[in-house]
Design a protein that fits this description.
The chain has six helices and five strands, in the order E-H-E-H-E-H-E-H-E-H-H. It is an alpha/beta fold. The radius of gyration is 15 Å and the shape is globular.
């Protein structure tokens, strides 16, 4: 498995630890930045990760201080279903029920042991389909409707 990952300056340390954790489990990563604690704009990172997710049909992880801003930015991109998760149950359900393809994490609100559990839960779960597919299809229809409207 391969995943795209990126963070703003607030999450650069957590991103490095997540990459090491994923590599230990045999998951390859595409690091979309940032690479230092120098201030960067989280929408740029959200877009870079989302581009990889869509281009390569792989999941992604995005990290900023709270996870809120970067998840909002990522969810503006058609085809991205970013879920901001602060516990492993939510991460698992985001995959199983919502077919989330991007995990958003708040670096300033979660400790690394919790982040590792969230990442493990997200990447261990698979989309269940069934009645959940109907709901994801509705999300996609809403996205399509408003993309057509403004473009």
């Amino acid at each position: 498995m391969k995943i795209a990952i990126g963070s703003d300056h607030a999450g650069v340390e957590q991103k490095s630890e997540i990459i090491a954790f994923l590599n230990e489990t045999g998951i390859e990563t595409i690091d979309c930045g940032c690479f230092s604690a120098d201030s960067v704009d989280y929408p740029d990172i959200a877009e870079a990760v989302a581009a990889q997710v869509l281009e390569k049909n792989i999941p992604g992880i995005i990290i900023c201080g709270t996870g809120i801003g970067i998840s909002i930015a990522a969810n503006k991109i058609p085809g991205i279903r970013a879920a901001l998760c602060s516990d492993s149950f939510s991460a698992e359900m985001a995959r199983r029920h919502n077919d989330a393809n991007v995990l958003a994490i708040g670096a300033r609100v979660l400790e690394m042991p919790v982040i590792r559990e969230i990442v493990r839960a997200f990447f261990s779960a698979d989309f269940e389909g069934g009645r959940h597919q109907r709901r994801v299809d509705k999300i996609n229809e809403i996205e399509k409707k408003y993309c057509e409207r403004c473009c």
